[in-house]
Amino acid sequence: MTERQRDNRLGPGGWIAIVVLVGFLGVAIAYAVHAWTALSGVPMSGLGWLFLALGILFTIGLGGGLMWLVFYSSRHHYDQ
Q1: How far apart are CA 19 and CA 13, in angstroms?
Q2: What angle do CA 26, 20, 32 make, to 5 degrees?
Q3: Could you tell me if residue 77 is left (phi over 0), alpha (psi between -120 and 50 degrees) or otherwise beta?
Q4: Percent of the chain having pLDDT more than 90?
């Protein structure tokens, strides 16, 4: 095993972080499902659905744009 292969292994702290983050994700999903089903009887107009969809699209676009900036700056060595 080369030195480079040995450096790519995830240590115990990394695995603990992954387990904790997956746990947070599970709790967030469970809460979202609970909130969504609890509000199933609340009526929402077509305009409300439109703004909900626009908010989702804007959030995904903003996240994608920020990730693109991270990769762009990394590849062009702006962050060193």
Answers
A1: 10
A2: 20
A3: left
A4: 71
